[in-house]
Amino acid sequence: MQSIPIEHGLILAGILFALGLVGVLTRRNIVFVLMSLEVMLNASGLAFVVASTRWGHADGQVMFLMILTLAAAEVAVGLGLIIQMYRKFQTVDIDVLSKMKG
Amino acid sequence: MQDLIWLLPTFPLLGFLSLVLTGGSLPKKIVAIIGAGSIGLSFLTAALIAVQFLGSGEDYFVKEVWVWMAVGEFTPGFTFYLDGLSLVMMLIITGVGFLIHLYSTGFMVDDPSYSRFFAYMNLFVAAMLMLVLGDNLVLLYLGWEGVGLCSYLLIGFWYENPENGYAARKAFVVTRVGDTAMAIGLFLLFTQLGTLNIQEMLHAAEQQWAVGSGLAIAAALLLLGGAVGKSAQLPLQTWLPDAMAGPTPISALIHAATMVTAGVYLIARTHVLFELAPTVQMLVAFVGLATLLMAGFTAMTQRDIKRILAYSTISQIGYMFLALGAGAWSAAVFHLMTHAFFKALLFLAAGTVILSLHHEHDIFKMGGKREQLPVAFWSFIIGSAALAALPFTSGFYSKDEILLAALEVQGPGLLLWIGGVIGAFFTGIYSFRLVFVVFFGDSNGHHEAKEDAVLSMAVPLCVLMVLALFGGWIQVPLDAVFSHGAGHEEERVSLLVHAIMIAAPILGIGVSYLFFMSKVFDVDKLMANPLASSLHRFWFSGWGMDALYQRLFVNPFLYLARINRNDLVDKFYAVIVSITRTAHLMIARSQTGYLGWYALSMALGLVLVLALGVML
Fold first, then answer.
1. Per the CB < 8 Å rule, is B591 touching A101?
2. What is the pLDDT of residues B292-305, one digit of tens each?
3. What does the alpha-carbon distance between residue B536 and residue B302 come to, in Å, rounded to a whole number?
4. How far, rounded to the nearest angstrom, does the alpha carbon of residue B604 sit from its chain's CA centroid?
5. Residue B501 CB neighbours (<10 A)
6. What is the 3-state secondary structure (H, E, C) of B505-538?
7. For a disulfide at B204, which of B76, B193, B497, B566, Cβ 3.0-4.6 Å?
C-alpha cells in the first residue's frame, strides 16, 4: 500500500491549524470563534495520527481519542457559556464584552 | 533545700502570670493574697536557703536549671549562683519586697488597677532576683532589662496623666543610654575572654589582662556606664526624681531599695575588673562623690516630699559608689542593705502621709502632723536618723565604714573623706528639714488628715523601723566573695576623725533646727539675698541638668527630626515605588479586554518562544 508521506500530513495539519488560528483572531462572532477552535484542535489531532502512523505506534490514535473527548466537553461548556452570554448581553459579538481591562 | 533556689524567681513569675492572665477579674482580696503571698513564699524559701547555705560553710553554690541557648561555644544557661553577695541581695529583695507588697495591699486598695499593680510588682521581683542570682552576664542582663521594663511600666502606672507617661519614657530612655554601654561591654568581654560566665570571666580577666591595660579599662568603663544609668549617678541621674510620678510603694521598692542599687551590685560583682583598672575605680569614687554632693545640695531645696527622698537616694547611692571606688566592696554592699531598710521605711512613711493628706506632695502645705499620724511620725524620725547616720542607727555603721575606707585611699583619700563628711552634713540638714516641716510647726495646710496607716500598712512600717534601727548589727557574709580585695586591716584612726564624722550630721540637724524649727534664721530673709535666691533656683532645678540635656540632646534631636520630617532614607524607596508604579501602568495598557488581542499575544509569544528554542 502506498503510504502518504509524513510531510504532507504535517503540512495539512499546519494549514488547518493556521486557518483555525486566523479564525479565532479575526472572527467577532463567538460561535465562529468556537468553531475555529475546533478546527485547531482537529489540526493537532491530525498531527498526532500522522505521527503515530509514521512510527507504527498506537499512542497517537489514543491521544486523538482523548482530544475528541476534550473537544466534546469543551463545546458543551462553551455553548453553555455562549447561551448565558446571549441571555445577559443580547449579543454574540466578543468585542462588545471588553469591560475587563487594566 | 539549696536545689530549690530556682523557686525564688518562679513564685513571683507565677504570681505575675496568674494576675495578668485573669486580667483584673479577680476580687481584690485574692489579688492581694496572690501578689503579696508569692513574694512571701519567695522570702520563706530564701530564708531557708540562707540558713542552710550559711550552715554548710561553703563559699558558693551553683545550680543549673537548663541551658538557655546553645550557639557554638556560647551556652548561657538559667544557672543560679549563690554566694555571700547574692545571698544578701536575695534576702533584701524578697524581705523588703515582701514588706512593701504587704504595705501596698493597704495603700493601693482604692485603685481600680489593683491587679495590674501587683502583676507588675511581681514581675519586677522575679526580674530582680534573676539579676542577682544569674551566674552569667546574659542572665544578669535579662534581669537588668526586665527591671528596667517594670520600672517604666510602674512609673507610668497612672498613665491617664500624660506627665507620668513622659516621666516613664524619660526614665526608660536615660537608663537605655547606660544599658547600651553595658551591652557593648558584654560584647567586648565575650569577644576578648570567650565567656560570659561571671566567675570564669573574672578569672580569665585576671590571667590575661595586666593591671591598667587598655582592654581592662575599656571593659570597666563600659560596665560603669551601665551602672551609672541604672543607679542614677552623674551624669545620668536626671530620670530618678521624675520617676517619683509612680505610686509611692514603687518608689520605695524600685527607686530606693532594690533596682537603683543594681549598679552597685554589678560593680561589686565584677569588682575584679575594676581592680584591674585602677583609674576607672578612682573614677567610680569621684562619680560617687560628685553625685552625693550634687544630690545633697538639691535635696535641701526641694518642696515635694518624694523628690526630697529621691535626691537623698541618689546621694546615698553616691556613698555606695564612693565605697566601691575606695575598694571597700563589702562596705558598699552593707550600706546598700541598711539603705534599703531605712529608705524603704522613709518612702512608705511618706506614702502614708501623702495618702492621708489626699495626695498632697508639697511639704510646706503639711505641717504639724505629729499628733495625727503617729506611725508615720516615728517612722520618719527613725528613718531620718538612720539616713543622717546618727550614732547607733543602722546607717551610722555603714556610712562610718565607707568614710573610713575613703580616708584610707592612697592619694585623694582626704579629699574623698572631706567630701563625704560634707555630704553627711547636708544629709542631716535635708532629712530633718523634712521632719521639722512636715511633723512640727503649725498645721498650715488646709488638709485634714485622714486616719493613720491601716494595719497592713503599719506592720511593714514597724518591721522596717526595727531593721532601720538595728540593721547595722547584721553581719554580712561577704568575706569569701571579696577575698581578692586588699586586706582591710583595722587601722587605728584618730579619735578626731570619728568625732568629726559623728558631729557632721548632728551639726546639720542643728542648722536645720535653727532654720525650720526655732526659726532663729529666717529662710525668707535669706531668699531676699539675690545670690542666695539664684543659688536656690540653681539647686532646685537639680543643678540645671535637665535644662542642659534639653539643650544638648533633646532640642538638637527635635531639630533634626523636624528637618528630616520626610525621611531622607525613604526617598530612595520612593523612587523604587514610582518606577514600579509607572511600569505597572504601562503594562496595564496591554490588557485591553479584547479576546482577539489576548489570543494573538499568546500565539505570538508561543512563536517567539519556539523560535528562540530553535535558534539556540
1. yes
2. 888 888 888 888 88
3. 9
4. 74
5. 22
6. HHHHHHHHHHHHCCCCCCHHHHHHCHHHHHHHHH
7. B193
Q: Which of B582, B595, B601, B607 to mutate to test the interface with A (most CBs of A within 10 A)?
A: B595
Interval A12-52: pLDDT, tens? 999 999 999 999 888 889 899 999 999 999 999 999 999 99
Encode burial over A80-89: b for 16+ CB neighbours within 10 A, e otherwise: eebeebeeee
Give B-chain residues touching A33 at CB under 8 angstroms. 595
Q: What are phi and psi of A3, to 5 degrees?
A: -90, 150
Exposed / middle / buried, residue B266 (Cβ in 10 Å: 0-12, 13-18, 19+): buried
Which chain A residues are closer than 8 Å to B605 by Cβ? none
CA distances from residue B583 to A49, B386, B590 in whole angstroms, order as listed: 46, 77, 12
CB atoms within 10 A of CB B270: 23
Alpha carbon of B555: minimum distance to chain A alpha carbons (Å) = 50
Mean pLDDT of B38-58: 87
- Taken as a whole, chain B contains a residue count of 616
Beta strand B60-67 with B77-83 is: antiparallel
What CA–CA distance (Å, rounded) separates B302 from B300? Answer: 6
Chain A residue with Cα closest to B588: A102
Distance in angstroms between the alpha carbons of the first and the last residue of chain B: 80
Decide if B404 contacts B322 (C-beta within 8 A): no
Supply the pLDDT for residue B492. 62
A39 Cβ under 8 Å from any chain B Cβ: no
Average pLDDT score over chain B: 84
Residue B405 in grid coordinates: 575606707
- Locate A73 and state its grid cell: 466537553
**End-to-end alpha carbon distance in chain A:** 58
Backbone angles phi and psi of A48, in degrees to 5: -60, -45
Percent of chain B residues topping a pLDDT of 90: 7
Residues of B in contact with A25 (CB under 8 A): 596, 599-600, 603
The SS3 assignment for B197 reads strand
pLDDT at B486: 47
User: Which of A21, A26, A33 faces B603 most closely, judged by CB atoms?
Assistant: A21
The secondary structure of residue A4, as a DSSP letter, is P
Entry pTM: 0.77
What is the three-class DSSP state of B33? helix
B105-134: per-residue pLDDT in tens?
A: 888 888 888 888 889 999 999 999 989 888
Which residues on neighbouring strands pair with residue B66, listed in sequence order?
Answer: B78
